[in-house]
Specification:
Layout lengths: L6 H4 L12 H13 L5 E5 L6 H13 L14 H7 L6 E5 L6 H11 L9 E6 L6 H12 L5 E7 L7 H4 L3 E4 L5 H15 L2 E2 L1 H11 L3 H15 L2 E2 L1 H8 L4 H13 L2 H13 L4 H18 L12 H11 L4 H18 L5 H16 L1 H6 L19 H11 L17 H5 L11 H9 L38 H8 L16 H14 L5 H9 L3 E2 L4 E6 L2 H9 L1 H12 L5 E6 L12 H11 L2 H9 L6
Helix pairs in contact: 5-6, 8-9, 9-10, 9-11, 10-11, 12-13, 12-17, 13-17, 14-15, 14-16, 16-17, 23-24, 23-26
C-alpha cells in the first residue's frame, strides 16, 4: 500500500507558472531575476494558504538554477534543481520563527550567514512566521538584514505584517499576497480531478472554494476529505453534507416565503435549519449574503461582483427582478442589526424569528395585514384594525331599525324600540308578530333600567383622571377618519335612544385584550395589571377584577374611566361597571409591589440596607 500524500503537498507549485492566483507577484519576481535587480531581503505577507512560502521556495530555487529558461523558470536538470526537488538543497535554509524566536536563535543565524555557499550562487534564508520573533531577536537580526553579504538573500513570510517592527519593514521589499479567487480555485480543483480521474459537479467544487475563504491549502484539505467520503465522484449534495453548510436552495426557498408573505413556511424552514445542527448566526449570515447577491444582480455594472455559476446567476437575476432596491437595502440593514445583536441576545431563536417577520413585512407587508385578525393571539399583524370592523355593522342595524317601526307606534306605543331591535325583519302586516317578540324582548328589557346606576361607578375615578387616551396614536394608523372619531370616545357612538346589548364572556375577553395591546407602549404598568386581572362577567353586567394588592387596585381604579368608556363603546352596553377585589393569596411571582413593599423585601434580604438608609438619611421615592 502506497503512502498517501495530501493534495496540498502533491500538487504544490514548483515553478512560477504553476502558482495560483498571484500572477502580479510572480511576474515581478521573474523580471527582477531577468534584469538582475534582485533585492537582498523580501517580505511576503498575506492570509494563510495563498502561496507565501511556496513562492519563497520557488524564488530560492530559481536564483540558484544554473540554466534557467527564457521565461525565468528553473530548468529542473542542474544539481541545484535536483537537490531542491529531493529536499536536499545545501543553499536553502528554512527557519520557523515560532519555535526559534529568541535572540540566541538569531545570533546563531547571523554566524551561519558568514559562511559562503559551497554550491550555487546564493544562500537563501526563509524565515516563516517572522512576526513571532521577539523585539530582542529583531534587533539582533537588524544589522545583518540591512547589510548582508552579496551571496545572502533573506525571504521573510508572515500573516501579520502589523506585528513587525518598522525598522525591519523599511529594509525589505514587501509583497502583499491576495486571497485566491473562487474561480481560480475552482479551475485548480478541476485540473486535479482530471488528473486523479474523479467525476465532479462544478457546484460542489464551488462550494469548497467558497468555504476555503481565499486559502487554497484549506480548499485542498477539504477536497481530500470529500474524496475520502464520496469516493471517485464528488456531488453537490455530498459536499454540503460533508462540510455541514447551508446550501443556496435554503435561501432561495426562504426568500420565496418572503415574497409570498408565508409566515408559517418561513418559521418552519428556520426550525428545520436549527434541527439540522446549524447555528442561527450562520443562517443570518448566509441570508444576508443572499440578499447582497440579489442587490448586486439588479445592476449590470455590479453583476461581475457575484462569484457564482451561470445557472445560479440566472436564478439570482430572476429573483432580484421581483423586488426593489429599497426593499433589499432595508432587509440588509435588519440582517446586519440581527447579526450584531445575536451574540449578546438571551433569546437567539426569537431574535432570528423576529428578523424573518421583519423581512416578510418588507417584501410582502399586505400578507401580515391580511392575517392580522387571524393571528391576533400570535401577535402578528396590525391588530387594532380588527377591532372597528364589527362596529359599523352593529351600529348600522340600530340606525335602520327605527325606520321600520316608525309606523308601528300607532298600534303599539308601549314598546316600539325593543321589538324592532330584536327582530327588525318582522313583516308589518302580521299583527300577532309583535306580541311574540314582546316575550323574548322581556329578557333583555331589564337592561334598560341599569342605565340609572351608571353614574354610580363613574364618580369613583374622577378624583384622579388619566390624561392619556385609551389608544395610542400609532394604534389608530390606517383607520378611516370616521372610525378614529368613534374610537376617540366610544361612549359617543352610543345613542341615547339605543338599547344596551347583551354580550358574552368571550366578547369581553377579546375587547379586553385589544385594549391592553393599545396601551402597551404608553402605559406599560397599567397594561401589566390589566393582563393579570382576569375579567369575569357577573350579574347585571358587573365585571369582576381580582388583583394582588392595594397598589394594583388603586392603579386600576384611577384608570378605569378610560377602560369603561372603551368597553361600553365596543360592546354597546352602558351598564358595564367594575367590581375590584384584592386577593393577597395570589402567587408571589405575579404580585405588583408598592415601593414600600419592595424596600421591605430588600431589607429582609440585606439588613445592612437599613443602616445605609439611616446613615445617609434617605427616603423612599413613591
Amino acid at each position: 500500500m502506497e503512502d498517501f500524500v495530501v493534495s496540498a503537498r502533491k500538487y504544490r507549485p514548483d515553478t512560477f507558472g504553476t502558482v495560483i492566483g498571484q500572477k502580479a507577484i510572480t511576474e515581478t519576481l521573474k523580471n527582477s531575476i531577468r534584469n538582475g535587480h534582485l533585492a537582498q531581503s523580501f517580505l511576503f505577507c498575506g492570509p494563510r494558504g495563498v502561496g507565501k512560502t511556496t513562492c519563497a521556495r520557488i524564488l530560492a530555487r530559481t536564483i540558484n538554477c544554473t540554466n534557467p529558461g527564457p521565461d525565468m523558470e528553473p530548468c529542473g536538470e542542474c544539481d541545484s534543481c535536483k537537490g531542491f526537488l529531493q529536499n536536499a538543497s545545501q543553499n536553502i535554509y528554512e527557519l520557523d520563527a515560532a519555535s526559534n524566536r529568541n535572540v540566541e536563535a538569531m545570533r546563531a543565524l547571523v554566524e551561519q550567514v558568514r559562511i559562503p555557499p559551497q554550491v550555487g550562487k546564493y544562500k537563501v534564508y526563509i524565515i516563516d512566521e517572522v512576526h513571532m520573533l521577539t523585539s530582542e531577536a529583531f534587533n539582533a537580526f537588524l544589522k545583518t538584514l540591512e547589510e548582508p553579504p552579496a551571496y545572502a538573500k533573506f525571504i521573510l513570510a508572515t500573516t501579520e505584517k502589523n506585528k513587525i517592527i518598522p525598522t525591519i519593514l523599511s529594509r525589505c521589499q514587501i509583497f502583499d499576497f491576495k486571497r485566491i479567487t473562487i474561480d481560480d480555485m475552482v479551475e485548480h480543483l478541476k485540473n486535479i480531478c482530471e488528473k486523479e480521474n474523479i467525476a465532479f459537479e462544478e457546484e460542489a467544487l464551488r462550494v469548497v472554494a467558497q468555504k476555503a475563504d481565499g486559502g487554497l491549502r484549506d480548499a485542498l484539505s477539504m477536497f481530500d476529505q470529500i474524496v475520502s467520503f464520496s469516493g471517485n465522484s464528488i456531488t453537490y449534495k455530498q459536499t454540503i453534507s460533508m462540510l455541514n453548510i447551508l446550501d443556496y436552495e435554503t435561501y432561495f426557498e426562504m426568500f420565496g416565503y418572503f415574497l409570498q408573505g408565508n409566515v408559517p413556511g418561513a418559521l418552519n424552514l428556520f426550525n428545520q435549519v436549527l434541527e439540522n445542527g446549524f447555528d442561527g448566526q450562520t443562517f443570518v449570515g448566509g441570508l444576508s449574503r443572499h440578499l447582497r447577491t440579489l442587490m448586486m444582480m439588479k445592476e449590470t455594472q455590479t453583476e461581475a461582483l457575484v462569484e457564482s455559476s451561470s445557472r445560479l446567476r440566472q436564478r439570482y437575476k430572476e429573483q432580484s427582478e421581483v423586488c426593489s432596491l429599497g426593499q433589499l437595502l432595508s432587509a440588509l440593514e435588519y440582517g446586519n442589526q440581527c447579526d450584531l445583536q445575536y451574540r449578546n441576545s438571551n433569546h437567539k431563536r426569537l431574535l432570528v424569528e423576529i428578523l424573518l417577520l421583519q423581512m416578510i413585512r418588507i417584501f410582502k407587508a399586505e400578507a401580515l395585514q391580511a392575517k392580522g385578525g387571524e393571528a391576533r393571539g400570535a401577535g402578528v399583524g396590525e391588530l387594532p384594525e380588527a377591532a372597528p370592523k364589527p362596529s359599523p355593522v352593529s351600529q348600522a342595524k340600530p340606525v335602520e331599525a327605527p325606520a321600520q317601526p316608525s309606523p308601528q307606534p300607532v298600534s303599539q306605543p308601549v314598546a316600539p324600540s325593543p321589538a324592532p331591535s330584536v327582530q327588525p325583519p318582522v313583516q308589518q302586516p302580521a299583527a300577532p308578530s309583535p306580541a311574540p317578540s314582546a316575550a323574548p324582548s322581556s329578557a333583555p328589557q331589564p337592561v334598560a333600567p341599569p342605565v340609572q346606576p351608571q353614574p354610580t361607578p363613574q364618580p369613583t375615578p374622577q378624583p384622579a383622571p388619566q390624561g392619556k387616551p385609551f389608544r395610542s396614536a400609532t394604534s389608530l394608523q390606517g383607520l378611516s377618519a370616521q372610525t378614529q372619531a368613534k374610537n376617540a370616545n366610544p361612549q359617543e357612538a352610543l345613542s341615547s335612544a339605543q338599547p344596551d346589548k347583551d354580550f358574552s364572556q368571550f366578547a369581553l375577553d377579546q375587547q379586553w385584550k385589544i385594549y391592553i395591546e393599545s396601551i402597551q407602549t404608553a402605559q406599560p404598568g397599567l397594561a401589566n395589571i390589566l393582563s393579570m386581572a382576569k375579567p369575569v362577567l357577573g350579574k347585571d353586567y358587573a365585571v369582576e377584577l381580582t388583583v394582588a394588592n392595594s397598589y394594583a387596585a388603586e392603579t386600576l381604579t384611577q384608570g378605569q374611566k378610560n377602560i369603561l368608556d372603551f368597553l361600553r363603546g365596543k360592546l354597546q352596553n352602558r351598564a358595564i361597571h367594575f367590581v375590584v377585589k384584592v386577593d393577597e393569596s395570589l402567587k408571589p411571582d405575579t404580585l405588583i409591589y408598592t415601593p414600600q413593599e419592595k424596600y421591605q423585601k430588600m431589607v429582609e434580604n440585606n439588613p445592612e440596607l437599613q443602616n445605609l438608609r439611616d446613615t445617609l438619611h434617605l427616603g423612599i421615592e413613591l
